[in-house]
Design goal:
Length: 425
C-alpha cells in the first residue's frame, strides 16, 4: 500500500507503518538532524528506511494534487509545540501549527485513510474549540477557509455544514482517541491523541484497537507470575508490600498482558556507567553525566513503564528522561535505552549530540504502537480495495472488512498466546 509521511521526524511513525505494510512515496521532514538520522540509516542499508524517498524541506512547498488517486494513507505528527504541556501553548496563533498543512495534503491527495498523532494537550479545555475545528476540517477537508475569514468564522461554517446532514464531496469518517501507549505494550506511559479517518464512501466502521496490556496484569505478574524471577531479583527487593496492597483489588488474573516496564525494555543492555566498554558494543549507548533529582523530576522507576520521554522546550530534556534505580539514585537514560522505550530497533542509529537525539526521541511515535494502529488500518483498507467509490456495494465492503479484521484478530490472539507461553517458561 502506498503512503505519504508528513513531519517524519526520526521516523518512529513511518517505520511502524512500513512494518504494517505501507510504502511511502514521499517522506517529508525539514529538521536537518532528523533528516541526517534517516539518511545515515539509509546509508547503512537499514531495511525500514532504505527505500524511503526523503524530501528534506518545507511541506508547504509540495503540491499533493499530483498524488490524487494513488495514495492509500497519509500519516504524520504535525509539530506539537503549540499544544504541548511543555510548550508555549500558542495553538492557532503559533506559526509552528502544521495541522492546516496536514489537512491540505489530505484535501489534495484524497487518500483512502489517514493517521495523525499529537500530544494529549491538544484535548485540554483551553483548546476545546480548536480541537473541534481540527476534527471538522479533517471530516470535511474541501470546506476551506475563505479570504479574510478568521478561524472561529470558519468553524461556524463547518458546524453549520455538519448539522445540515449534507455528506456530498470529500468526506471522511473520523475517530479521535486519547491513547496510553503502555496499554499497547510500549514500556512508557505516553498519552497521545490519534486522529484516524477513512473515506466515507468506503463504508468502513472503525474503532481504535482495544488495549492489550494493563497495570492490573503487571501487578498480578509481580505477585503471582514470574516477573521477579525472570529478572533474577532477590526477594528482599521485590516490593512485596506495595504489590500486595494493589492485589487486594484483583479477584482473578487479568486477561490482558502485563504493562512492560523499564526493566523489561532495557534488559540485556550493559550498565553504561559501570560497564562502559561493554556498553560501547551497542549503538548510541553511552553514559550521560549530570543527572539530578528534584521535586517533580524524579526519574522513571525500573519496575514500571517509563514516564513519557520529552523533547525539552529549550533543548535540555528534563527529569522524565532519567532512570531511578532501586535505591533512589538517578542517571539519564542513554539514547539506546530511550530508543528501546520508544521501541525502535537496536540497529537504528541516531545522529547528533545526546540532547539533540533525545529531542528526536521525545518527539517520536513509538514504533510498535504505530505498527499496531497501521496493521489495523491496513486491514480495513484491504477489505475495501475491490469496491469502487460510491458503487452501492457498501454491504460487501463492510463484510469484507469484518472478515479481514477477524483474520487479523485471530493472528494477534495466537501471537499473544505464544508470547504468554514463552513468558512463563
Amino acid at each position: 500500500m502506498k503512503s505519504i509521511e508528513l513531519f517524519a521526524g526520526a521516523g518512529g511513525l513511518g517505520i511502524g507503518l512500513h512494518r504494517a505494510g505501507f510504502h511511502p512515496v514521499n517522506v517529508i521532514e525539514r529538521d536537518r538532524y532528523c533528516c541526517d538520522t534517516i539518511r545515515q540509516n539509509q546509508s547503512r542499508n537499514i531495511a525500514d528506511v532504505k527505500d524511503w524517498s526523503l524530501f528534506a524541506g518545507d511541506v508547504r512547498e509540495i503540491d499533493f494534487g499530483k498524488y490524487q488517486g494513488q495514495i492509500d494513507l497519509i500519516s504524520g505528527g504535525p509539530p506539537c509545540q503549540p499544544f504541548s504541556l511543555g510548550g508555549r501553548h500558542g495553538a492557532h496563533l503559533d506559526a509552528r501549527d502544521m495541522f492546516p498543512e496536514a489537512i491540505r495534503a489530505i484535501r489534495q491527495a484524497r487518500p483512502k485513510a489517514f493517521i495523525l498523532e499529537n500530544v494529549k494537550g491538544l484535548t485540554r479545555s483551553a483548546f476545546r474549540n480548536y480541537f473541534e475545528y481540527i476534527r471538522l476540517q479533517l471530516t470535511y477537508p474541501e470546506i476551506e477557509m475563505i479570504t479574510d475569514e478568521c478561524w472561529p468564522d470558519h468553524l461556524a461554517r463547518l458546524e453549520q455544514h455538519h448539522l445540515s446532514g449534507s455528506r456530498s464531496g470529500l468526506v471522511y469518517r473520523l475517530v479521535t482517541q486519547v491513547v496510553n501507549a503502555a496499554d499497547y505494550g510500549i514500556p512508557q506511559r505516553r498519552e497521545r491523541v490519534f486522529f484516524v479517518g477513512f473515506l466515507a464512501d468506503l463504508g468502513v466502521n472503525w474503532h481504535f484497537p482495544l488495549p492489550t496490556h494493563s497495570f492490573d496484569a503487571l501487578v498480578w505478574d509481580k505477585a503471582r507470575g514470574g516477573y521477579w524471577d525472570r529478572h533474577e531479583i532477590s526477594r528482599t527487593q521485590r516490593q512485596a508490600a506495595l504489590v500486595e496492597s494493589y492485589l487486594r483489588h484483583l479477584w482473578e488474573k487479568p486477561k490482558t498482558l502485563p504493562w512492560r516496564t523499564v526493566r523489561d525494555a532495557i534488559h540485556g543492555l550493559p550498565d553504561p556507567e559501570r560497564e562502559p566498554s561493554l556498553a560501547a558494543a551497542f549503538l548510541n549507548h553511552r553514559f550521560q553525566p549530570g543527572a539530578r533529582s528534584y521535586p517533580g523530576h524524579t526519574g522513571s522507576p525500573l519496575d514500571e513503564p517509563a514516564k513519557a520521554l520529552k523533547a525539552g522546550v529549550h533543548g535540555v530534556p528534563g527529569g522524565e528522561n532519567m532512570l531511578r534505580k532501586a535505591r533512589g539514585a538517578v542517571r539519564y537514560f542513554t539514547v539506546r535505552e530511550s530508543a528501546r522505550l520508544q521501541t525502535f530497533p537496536d540497529n537504528f542509529l541516531f545522529h547528533g549530540s545526546w540532547s539533540e537525539t533525545m529531542r528526536q526521541l521525545g518527539n517520536a511515535v513509538p514504533v510498535q504502537l504505530a505498527r499496531l494502529v497501521g496493521e489495523n488500518v491496513a486491514c480495513h483498507i484491504a477489505g475495501t480495495d475491490h469496491v469502487g467509490s460510491g458503487n452501492g456495494d457498501s454491504g460487501k465492503t463492510i463484510q469484507s472488512t469484518r472478515q479481514a479484521q477477524s483474520r487479523q484478530e485471530r493472528r494477534r490472539g495466537a501471537s499473544r498466546q505464544t508470547s504468554s507461553t514463552t513468558r512463563h517458561h
